[in-house]
User: Which sequence fits this backbone?
């Protein structure tokens, strides 16, 4: 199967060849001909399977093949709605790449930056506008954008776009859009409720499920490390050094948690930065760009970075905190293992996160293996979960799974902590005192745990 066989013309296929796009993915094979035929589409596919190209390529060709007419003042011909500023930039850049040999203009508008330059740029009109809902409403309210020439609207990461946080904004926008339009919904996850909302906005849509619902790529190895909440930072420092992690995307629950972890990392001369909603957009984009080119080793983010961001060959994602919404877990770990590459997703889980873990396992229909790190065993045990019907994976497998940089992964024999760990990072692993309380003793001399002292709260 080739892109030309899907109906794409030479200007696009030649550009794709230059980008080393050789064979269409499953979602592209199903979506591109349908969109070229003018159908509404609701498509679900795993992260990293080429969803952006699946809607952008046929959309660009449709606009390029349309009757040539001057683009009216403040008019747009297609709108792509996305949930985050970073994703808006990324989708715009992809559209510009694909349209390199087409006489089309692409632009991104989002919050966190001055509205004035966006109003000025839109005055001449634009073929494809990538926007966050709130900023597009601002532009429309101020009369900076008009929709009479609009042919298509795309909701990228549609499950989030149709979630409660965006429902009101979308209701306002859809009232302003022409009724005669093509509507496309793309995402990695669709709940039944969100599917119903999507179907209500589409006309006889083609439903595409290129991959099983709510699944992560098989190339991503997933496991859990039980640990007490207060020791998560120390555990991350230890595992990063022990496994030789070079580039890690870390997800934290709160903005404050992001900043605190970055402060600890930079204090230890580790190049790190954060992305969250309180940071100016210029700072967020600078941090992301620096991470992509390797100037930053650790990028710590809230879920603003969980959707759609494409980072080439990212080896590890660490869930420092589990997400409050189980669907966000799939999107988070989808930042690694993209386009068939191998990746790892490691989740640090404390006792009070057990319900969140259970929800995730129920969603993905899989028990995540647990692999305690020697010296970081939790005092408050993480309760067993019983969400999915699948049996838990064995903690010690007959065939150990390799981790990053050739290190043992989950299921491998337990390692002893490096003898120089406390010396090099004095706050990462507290010294263990001997029976007399007058000095540290090594982990090798620790011996069996005393009986009659059960672990628990």
Assistant:
């Amino acid at each position: 199967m080739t892109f030309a066989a899907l109906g794409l013309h030479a200007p696009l296929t030649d550009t794709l060849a230059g980008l080393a796009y050789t064979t269409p993915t499953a979602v592209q094979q199903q979506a591109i001909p349908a969109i070229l035929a003018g159908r509404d589409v609701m498509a679900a596919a795993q992260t990293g399977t080429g969803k952006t190209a699946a809607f952008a390529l046929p959309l660009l060709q449709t606009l390029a093949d349309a009757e040539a007419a001057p683009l009216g003042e403040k008019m747009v011909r297609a709108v792509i709605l996305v949930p985050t500023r970073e994703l808006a930039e990324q989708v715009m850049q992809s559209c510009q790449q694909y349209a390199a040999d087409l006489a089309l203009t692409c632009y991104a508008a989002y919050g966190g930056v001055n509205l004035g330059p966006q109003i000025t740029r839109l005055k001449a009109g634009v073929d494809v506008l990538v926007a966050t809902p709130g900023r597009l409403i601002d532009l429309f309210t101020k009369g900076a954008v008009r929709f009479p020439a609009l042919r298509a609207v795309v909701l990228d990461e549609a499950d989030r776009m149709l979630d409660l946080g965006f429902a009101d904004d979308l209701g306002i926008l859809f009232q302003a859009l022409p009724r005669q339009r093509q509507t496309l919904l793309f995402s990695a996850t669709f709940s039944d409720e969100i599917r119903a909302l999507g179907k209500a906005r589409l006309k006889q849509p083609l439903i595409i499920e290129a991959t099983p619902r709510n699944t992560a790529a098989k190339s991503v190895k997933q496991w859990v490390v039980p640990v007490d909440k207060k020791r998560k930072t120390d555990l991350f420092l230890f595992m990063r050094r022990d496994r030789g992690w070079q580039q890690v995307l870390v997800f934290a629950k709160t903005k404050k948690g992001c900043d605190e972890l970055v402060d600890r990392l930079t204090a230890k001369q580790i190049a790190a930065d954060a992305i969250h909603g309180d940071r100016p957009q210029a700072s967020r984009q600078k941090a992301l760009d620096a991470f992509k080119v390797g100037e930053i080793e650790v990028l710590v983010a809230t879920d603003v970075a969980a959707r759609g961001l494409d980072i080439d060959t990212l080896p590890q994602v660490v869930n420092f905190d589990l997400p409050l919404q189980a669907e966000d877990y799939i999107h988070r770990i989808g930042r690694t293992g993209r386009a068939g590459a191998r990746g790892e997703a490691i989740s640090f889980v404390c006792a009070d996160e057990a319900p969140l873990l259970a929800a995730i396992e129920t969603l993905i229909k899989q028990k995540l293996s647990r692999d305690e790190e020697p010296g970081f065993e939790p005092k408050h045990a993480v309760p067993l979960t019983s969400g999915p019907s699948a049996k838990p994976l064995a903690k010690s497998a007959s065939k150990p799974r390799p981790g990053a940089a050739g290190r043992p992964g989950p299921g491998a024999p337990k390692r002893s902590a490096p003898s120089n760990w406390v010396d090099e990072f004095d706050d990462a692993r507290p010294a263990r005192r001997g029976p007399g309380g007058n000095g540290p003793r090594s982990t090798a001399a620790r011996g069996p745990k005393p009986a009659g002292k059960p672990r628990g709260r």
About this structure: DSSP finds 15 helices and 14 strands in the chain. Residues 251 and 319 are 5 Å apart (CA to CA). The chain has two domains: 4-209, 220-415. The longest strand covers residues 220-226.
